[in-house]
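ARCHIVE CARD
CATEGORY: sequence design from structure
SOURCE FIELD: tokenized fold
FIELD CONTENT:
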């Protein structure tokens, strides 16, 4: 479901949630100007998932975001989110007894300042989130540079994340640090077509193991790379926009993944928009993943207690595939108010992977997400 090591419910939701409705493609990609209106958005997300014989996680997540123009050439974005999680941790494989009860809450905030020039936008951001056993602080710098004809835009970015990890009931005090790099380009191909290509790379060091799994020892360094290709086409005759995205990911753990995302935003008249979506995901297993149900071993052959060999029986390190189906409906009430609601259904199976190293004994997973939102511009 996600390429992140700490697959918390919040990260899971970020990976699976529906994308927002984007504006229709226009004839040119104008250099971004400073906004002249403020905007406030309130959203509520409810997530539930199940595995066979087990109602697993329920997440309630309200959020608030604000965008405000400042002094003509500046703007400020701010966001707050609160996740309340209850249920059970993921089962290792097929036994319900491998799940454990849990509850948690997360509070997060982010702040981003933008400065606009004639063809350049500079942004600096800071984000912080806290859980009872995990704290994270992130800094970022980004630049968008448009060509003279405004048909090409280059995007550059760097970031740094610093995490502190503890564990309830255990003496554990660990850290994880990561450096992020981004380069991308957006290109207008025609009056109704636009494409974007983005490359990202993360170099991270520290604690990547799951503190709550007895047999989970992962490398203390992880290199992650991803390529994202987006293509949008606007159908002038019906006032609809097709959005097609493809993402390829690989890392030093041996995980590779492919994600294909298809959306179509159709205007229905009277300021209504409907957006059906389909997402296909597949990943290979980490090099150190093993399945005790599949191999009938509690400890893999060759593993030495106290040694340096890496091992994990975490299902999220296995090979699997996922399919998401969703629908979003939005209404522009007037020049100030917009409302929207979306529903998404996610299904995960080990035999849906494109790769060959899947384990048929792995338990399947189903998830549903409902989100409602309200936006006010003034």
């Amino acid at each position: 479901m996600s390429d992140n090591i700490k697959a918390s419910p919040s990260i899971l939701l970020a990976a699976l949630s529906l994308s927002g409705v984007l504006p229709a493609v226009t004839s040119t990609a104008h250099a971004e100007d400073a906004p002249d209106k403020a905007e406030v958005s309130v959203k509520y997300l409810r997530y539930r998932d199940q595995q066979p014989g087990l109602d697993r996680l329920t997440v309630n997540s309200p959020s608030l975001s604000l965008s405000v123009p400042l002094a003509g050439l500046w703007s400020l974005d701010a966001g707050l989110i609160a996740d309340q999680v209850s249920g059970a941790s993921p089962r290792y494989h097929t036994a319900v007894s491998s799940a454990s009860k849990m509850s948690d809450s997360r509070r997060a905030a982010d702040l981003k300042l933008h400065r606009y020039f004639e063809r350049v936008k500079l942004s600096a951001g800071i984000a912080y989130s806290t859980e009872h056993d995990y704290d994270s602080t992130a800094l970022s710098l980004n630049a968008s540079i448009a060509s003279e004809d405004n048909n090409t835009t280059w995007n550059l970015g760097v970031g740094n994340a610093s995490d502190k990890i503890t564990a309830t009931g255990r003496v554990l005090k660990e850290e994880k640090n990561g450096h992020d790099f981004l380069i991308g380009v957006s290109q207008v191909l025609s009056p109704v077509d636009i494409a974007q290509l983005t490359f990202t790379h993360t170099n991270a060091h520290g604690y990547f193991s799951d503190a709550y799994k007895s047999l989970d020892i992962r490398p203390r360094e992880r290199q992650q790379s991803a390529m994202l290709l987006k293509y949008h086409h606007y159908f002038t005759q019906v006032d609809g926009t097709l959005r097609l995205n493809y993402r390829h990911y690989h890392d030093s753990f041996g995980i590779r993944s492919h994600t294909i995302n298809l959306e179509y935003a159709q205007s229905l008249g009277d300021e209504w928009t409907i957006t059906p979506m389909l997402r296909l995901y597949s990943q290979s297993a980490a090099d150190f993943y093993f399945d005790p149900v599949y191999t009938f071993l509690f400890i893999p052959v060759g593993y030495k207690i106290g040694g340096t060999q890496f091992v994990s029986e975490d299902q999220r390190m296995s090979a699997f595939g996922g399919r998401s189906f969703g629908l979003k409906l939005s209404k522009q009430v007037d020049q100030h108010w917009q409302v929207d609601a979306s529903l998404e259904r996610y299904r995960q199976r080990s035999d849906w992977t494109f790769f060959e190293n899947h384990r048929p004994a792995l338990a399947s997973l189903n998830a549903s997400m409902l989100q409602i939102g309200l936006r006010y511009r003034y």
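CARD ANNOTATION: The longest helix spans residues 9-16. The CA atoms of residues 158 and 234 lie 32 Å apart.
SHELF: design records, drawer C
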